[in-house]
Batch of 3 targets.
Target 1
Amino acid sequence: MLEDKSHSPKVYEISPTLKFLSSCLPIPGYEDFIGTYLFCGEKKALVDVGPKAAIPGLLLALSQVGVSPDEIDYIILSHIHIDHAGGVGTAVREMNNARVLVHSRGRAHLIDPTALWKSSQETLGKAALKYGSYDPVPGDRIILAEEGMKLDLGQGLILEIYLTPGHAAHHLIVFNRASGILLAGDSAGVYTNGFLRLTTPPQFRLDDYMASLDKMIALRPVKLGYAHFGCYDNAIERLHAIREKVFLWHKIAQSAVREGKTAEEIIQLIRAKDKTLDRLDTLDKDTYGREYLLLLNSVQGLMTAK
């Protein structure tokens, strides 16, 4: 029987010290949606490991680039949502020397992920079950992120950490000043299938989000790394684009809420004004299902934004 390689991990080289590993999650519509960044100096760091279902693919991708799980020194979490951090408890059991860097608001939830898993199921429904539940992370493996802290990976590779609330109160970004590469997590939207979409889930805070975007723009990055999906040039232009899109979508959503519109109706109003969303109609059924679920979640966040 021939080996099925349809879900084989993919490796993209971003720079001599940075690779993007796609775990090719074996869930229809999610194959090219979740990835992990790997920094390689004398020490090695991963940025976001994805959900539990992504860990087998991540481990395989690491083997493809010649990195043993025990060579990983840090796992940096942009935030603790399931599609970024759901597999971290599973990962640390394989990566015996790795310590987990997370926002202080995330520590307790990693140690006891019961509430986090419950919230994920309430928000994502069946998608959360496909991602897999959280495993706990031992408290002594966790490092708390601080504004402006630096991780020196050796060989001149230094990662700067900045706190960027808005998408979530526990969000942070990673910046390598020498290369100008900024890994934005979900704080600069999602860029998949050729179009830019917001990531503004419930508990979204507009003022915090805009301040975080301004902070990222002030860093003057050259390349922008999206968790979903990949790293691209023209970072500042992309950050300004998401800033404009947030203002537009928020204005439409808030006006529609006052008129008693539903989230589904607001999506149609947004599509009438933002024609980049016409690309939704070109997606296959499974990918469209994923995007519509997450688009609905983002609109619900805009409807209740503070």
Note: Residues 1-6 have pLDDT under 50 and may be disordered.
Target 2
Amino acid sequence: MANIGVCFPPPVGLLLIRMVAGIAVSKVRMTLSSFSEILDLQSVRGGSPLIGPDDPPPVEVFNEGGTAPILLVCDHASRAIPEAMHLLGLEPAALDLHIASDIGAGELTRLLARRLNAPAVLAGDSRLLIDCNRQPGDPQSIPEVSDGVVIPGNQGLSEEEQAARAEAFHWPYHHAIDKAFAQLRRTGPEPLLFSIHTFTPSMGGEDRFWDVSVLWNRDPRMAVPLISMLRDHDRFNVGDNEPYSGKEIAYTINLHAGAAGLANAAIEVRQDHCETLEELTRWSELFGDALEALLGMDHLHKVEHF
């Protein structure tokens, strides 16, 4: 049987081809858009069987549209543990202790983000699941014992179980920091990174007398003037790399800022100064004034390796 075809004049045929191609491209774009939305949802929820539909996501991005050229991060903002993890075998009261989170740090981060109109990224789950301020695989990243408290659900984890923890709770947080930091770098001057922590007044039987401390590793550009500003307030005992040293524990600021040559520092506030909203608001105003002064220093908005 002879083939029967329909012929169109060249202009009409070309127009039809373009129309059909356009429809196909639109469908592909719609499919990719829907797929992207699914991936975004999965990335927020962690895409992990460890995280159920009623559990909080492993990362919180607060004030995402903030325009100040500084990103606030909080590695230990939450005491949440997904339902499937059964509180890691702990009593509920254990989650009220400093071993589960940096008490007050999450709310301080949000207050400071509002004060500066800055974006903030906060870890969504307890540090007992995995410490987001340590390299996965670090023996202390999933503690079997924390300040004398045995963590039953962390005992004898296999390599696969440890990797699953990192995929569920660690990497979504750090991917969110990468995304937020990249957005700031595309839209303004080189941004600063500021990490917010709190510390227990007593650890391992030893009292800690600093009210507040600045942690830093190699880059002194933020830390040195910030320490000076805080010490101008005579009522504070201000530490320099106390009670922890940024030269030893600084995974987050090293990974996202130090390696890129961007100015960075971390703050530690003693937790008995963070017990009320009034106290946290005062700290946010104090840090807000200091950081606004730092943001006005042009040399901090340059890439410089130390």
Note: Confidence is low (pLDDT under 50) at residues 1-46.
Target 3
Amino acid sequence: MLTRRLRRWAWAFLAPALVVYTIFWVFALVSGLSLGTTKWTGFGPLTFVGTDNVVSILRDTHFWESLGRNVIYGVLNTIFGLGLGLVTALLLDHIKHWRVFFRTAIYLPVVLSWIIVIFLFRWLFNPTFGLLNPLLNALGLGFLAVNWLIDLRSLFYLIIVIAIWKTYPISTITFYAALQNMPREMKEASYIDGANELLCTWYVVLPQLKAVVAVLVSLSLMDAFRVFDPFYALSGSSGGIGILDLDVIATMLYRRAFGQFMLGNASALGFILFVLTLAVSVLFLRTLGRTEN
């Protein structure tokens, strides 16, 4: 009797969340999938086209170029973001004073909105009144000074640098929390056995961070397929020149839905993006399971 009562209370507390989940996720997913099988501009009747939208997207070279930029963004952001986060966390772990100040200062970029960050870097890298090019000229590196906001190749890698600067504090705090929970006895035993700081970090500390690394890598790769803000905000800095050459999947979806009014095609593209993110999520769960085992 008590078990039934507890189950009823459990369902009573779960019901509001389940209703919201069904309306805003399940219903939206089913609606998006059904819309992806049609041709619709937002006005007039819908025309059923089946899998034509998906086939046309997979045959579109622009899709594969955008997906390639997602992959490059994800790989570089994961490698350098996690690497910088790990190094920063190790340094924080050895700091005895002002820890709260440094943690707060490091985490500040995460708190800032993408729009603020984009405007900050657009000012910093502006070729006319920015700070970077004059600094390069003063250091005798004038040959590196380019119009960062016009040159599409440099703009793409500038977006990656901005993303690393904004997101690496998350991995820093995660690694730092893992280091704080790590048994100190193992490190002390390695020091007694004659290991220096570098050997202790390599053979004792890093192996215990495998699960954390697996989680952060998977989350970083999932975010790479959903990235939108920096590419959309900075693509306007090129003055419209080659604006499609900076597209990733999310900005490509946005332009097709609200620029070209190809809502059916955009929904199919959203389904492909969902499948890609789901595949990375499954890979994350399997990797995490193997790491825990």
Note: The mean pLDDT is 83.
